[in-house]
Design goal:
The structure is a single chain. This protein is of the alpha/beta class. The protein is built from 8 helices and 11 strands. The chain starts with a strand and ends in an 8-residue tail after the last strand.
């Protein structure tokens, strides 16, 4: 059973989140302020933290940064909870390390859909694709090793590669890639995917990611034929 920690200073918000997520079968932990959230995170090691940005005392940005800097908690999934009038681009610009965000007022279907999408990322932990011996993707440590060389990829490039490699030979459509890697509330164009694919190919080689024209991309090792 996946464990979710909710950190919010508003009791009614905590109750709404707890009610809807318990119906989905999740184990729920509650914290009413940032410091309590950090302590619970250290003790319980949740799979996902839903973290309010605007809280008195220690705000969500600081909580997120402290969690990311705590050994053993660097890769806990974190989803910000934001009000409509907050500019998420500014939050993202702080590079606090959140994986996604949900806007208030909370829509239960959006909440549960986003939570399930985030938790699916755990499936790609320590991916090593069958038949490919020279590329290893470690989702837990956010590392890619190619021919013994460690590559430190930017977060979105890593998430894109880990997503594609999680299901070799399966074609991921563009809208699915956008939802899984960038989220549904952040508007980016198709060119964003293309640019990230190009950068990945520059770093890991052209053999791993195949374009499926008009549809999307898939992870595949394409053997080169020597003349």
């Amino acid at each position: 059973m996946d464990k979710i920690l909710i950190v919010d200073d508003e009791e009614d918000i905590r109750e709404i989140l707890e009610y809807n997520l318990k119906k989905e079968g999740f184990q729920i932990l509650l914290a009413e302020n940032g410091q309590m959230g950090i302590e619970l995170c250290k003790e319980e090691k949740p799979d996902l933290i839903i973290l309010d940005v605007m809280m008195p005392g220690m705000d969500g940005i600081e909580v997120c940064e402290q969690i990311r800097n705590t050994p053993g908690l660097e890769n806990v999934l974190i989803c910000f909870l934001t009000a409509r009038n907050e500019d998420y681009s500014q939050i993202a610009g702080l590079d606090a390390g959140a994986d996604d965000y949900i806007s208030k007022p909370i829509k239960p279907r959006v909440l549960t859909s986003r939570v399930h999408a985030l938790l699916r990322r755990k499936e790609t932990i320590q991916v090593k694709s069958p038949g490919i011996s020279d590329l290893e993707i470690n989702r837990e440590k956010y590392l890619v090793v190619r021919n013994g060389e460690t590559l430190h990829l930017p977060k979105k490039e890593f998430e894109l590669l880990a997503l594609l490699a999680s299901r070799p030979e399966v074609v991921f459509e563009r809208d699915v890639i956008l939802e899984r890697v960038w989220g549904t509330d952040i508007v980016v164009g198709d060119r964003t995917i293309d640019v990230h694919i190009r950068k990945l190919r520059e770093k890991i080689g052209d053999d791993y990611i195949q374009t499926v024209k008009g549809i999307g991309y898939k992870f595949k090792r394409v053997e080169k034929i020597e003349n």
